[in-house]
Amino acid sequence: MSTDTEQAQPAWWTGAVVYQIYPRSFADSNGDGVGDLGGIIGKLDYLADLGVDVLWLSPVYQSPHHDNGYDISDYRRIDPAFGTLEQFGELLAEAHRRGMKLVMDLVVNHTSHEHEWFREASASVDSPKRDWYWWRDPRDGFDAGEPGAEPTNWGSAFSGPAWTLDPRTGQYYLHLFAPQQPDLNWENRDVRSAVYEMMNWWLDLGVDGFRMDVINYISKDPALPDGVVPPGGLWGDGGPHFISGPRIHDYLQEMHREVFAGRSADLITVGEMPGATVEEARLFTDPARRELDMIFQFEHVGLDYGPGGKWDYRGLDLDDLKKSWTRWQQGLATTGWNSLYLNNHDQPRLVSRFGDDAEFRYESATLWATLLHLHRGTPYIYQGEELGMTNVPFAAMGDFRDLESINYFTEATTVLGLDPEQVLASIRIVSRDNARTPVQWSDEANAGFTTGEPWLGVNPNYTTINAQADRSSDRSIYGYYQQLIRLRHSSAVVRLGEFTPLPEDHPSLYAFTRAQDGETLTVLGNVSGEDLVLPEGVGRGELVLGNYPDPTSDVTPGSAEDAAGDFRRLRPWEVRVLRTTRP
Predict the structure, then answer these.
(1) Is 272 a catalytic residue?
(2) Residue 276's closest CA among 256, 300, 258?
(3) Which of 53, 209, 502, 547 is the most exposed place for a label (fewest CB within 10 A)?
(4) Active-site pick, 28, 105, 213, 304
(5) Which residue in the list 28, 150, 254, 272 is annotated as catalytic?
(6) CA 170, CA 187: separation in Å to the nearest integer?
(7) Would you say the pTM of this structure is higher than 0.90?
(8) What whole-number distance in Å separates Cα of residue 66 and Cα of residue 537?
(9) Tens digits of per-residue pLDDT, 236-277?
C-alpha cells in the first residue's frame, strides 16, 4: 500500500516477486507429518537464495481445518499444528533480516463455525451477534429441514446448498463455501470494525500486508434473491448477487482509511477476486481510489474448463490465453495493477496442466515461467513451482484430502449418477490436492518433508524431482527462476515497460514485446513439443535469457543476420528473451 508521496515513483512491489507458502505442506520440523513455522524458518535461506521479495503465508491461524485453515476460529492465535505466536515472531524477524517481507492470508468473507462470534450468533435469535452472520427463515410454504426449504436456491462452491439449518433456532445460515464456513455480514458496522481492529493488530506486530481471500464476495445484495439454475445444474448461481456486490468499493475504501492510511511502512494489499473483470480491476487498484494495490483474477485459469465448469476439463487453447492476457495487460496499462500467477494452492501443477511433465518438463516449466514473469504485473511463485513439481497419480478417492474434490465426487456419483471412474479421472487432473502434496526437498524418505507420516501422500516421483537434485543439475529450474527474478530486479523494462503483443496468428507461438526508453525486450515462446520456424524478422536481437543452453540461429555464420542475432527456429518448448536498443 503506497502513500500519496510515493505515487510519483513506481511502487516498490512493481519490482517484487512473491513466493506463496502453503505451510501444511512446506516443511515439517517436529515429525508430526504437518508442515509448520519451524519448518519455514529452516528454509528461509533457500527462499532468500531464490531471490524472492515477499513471502505469502496461507492461513496459520487457529482452525478446525475443515478447509485446511481457510475456516478460522481465532484470528489472533496461531494454530498449534503450526506452532506458536512466539515462533511466528521469530519467522517474521528472520524473514526481515534476510530482506524478505511477510504477508498474511486474510480470510474475512467467512469464519469457522467454531469461532466465538458464530457460537454467540447461533446461541439465540436474540443474540447481540446474531446479525454478524446471514440468517433467514425457511422459504415460504416450507418447513425447516424440508427439501427445498433453503431461503434461496444458491449452491455452495463446495457442492450442495449454500444454506444450512440451525436446528436450535429453526433458521438457516449462509455459507458460500462449506457449512463449517458461515459468511460474515459486512452490512453490520460492528463486523467491519472487529475485522479492521484485527488487521491493525497484525500490522502492529510487523507483518507487511495481506492477501485477502475472496474479498470481492463480502458485499451481498441484502435481498439475497434466487439465482439462475444452469442447464443440468442442481443449484442456482448466486454470483450476480455477491460477486463485487453493491457496497464493495465502500468497504475497501473504508478498510484503507481504518487500517492502512497514515502508516509509513512499505505494505502490500492483494485482493483475490473470482469473477472480476478488467474494468472492475482498474477501479479496485487505481491508487487514487485507495482500495487495493493489486488483485488476483481467475479468467486465465478457467480457460481450460469445458461447458460443465472446472471438472469438465478440455485442455488449453493457446489463442484463448493470448487474448485473455493481452486484454488484461492493455486494460491495466495506465491505471491499476495485476498479479501474475499460474500456480497456487487452488490450482493443479503448472507443468502438468499446461506443459509436458514427462519428456520436456524442464523446458516447459521454464517456458511458462518466462512468459509469465515477462508480463507487466507482480509475479507469484507457488511452493515447488520453482522445482517443476508435477501433478500426482492419485489412485483412488481415498488418496484425496481436499474438501472440494471429495464433495464433488459424492454429489456427482450419488446425485447426478455419473460414472465413478470418469469422475475420478476428472478430479485427478484438476484437484487442488495436486498443489498440496508435500514439497519435495530430497530423495530421502517422504521427500525430506517429514520424519513422520505426511498428512497427504508425497508424489512418488520425489526420488528424481526434488530440490536437492534440481539445484545440483546443470538444467536447474530453481536456477532459471533465480535468473528471472534477477532480471525483474535489474530491468525497468520488465517492471514497467509497455506491453505489445506480436500479431502472429500461430497456434503454438506466444510472442510479445516490452519496451521503455528506447530498449525493447522481445519474448518468443514455442508452446508445443514440435520445432517452430519463426516468421521473418521476429527472432532478431541480443539473447538475454533462454531455456536451451545453445540457442541455434539457423543463419549463415558471419552473415549480417548472424551479427544481428537473427534466430529463425524455436525447439520444443523453447523460450527466448531478446534485447534490441534504439540508438
Answers:
(1) yes
(2) 300
(3) 502
(4) 213
(5) 272
(6) 23
(7) yes
(8) 55
(9) 999 999 999 999 999 999 999 999 999 999 999 999 999 999
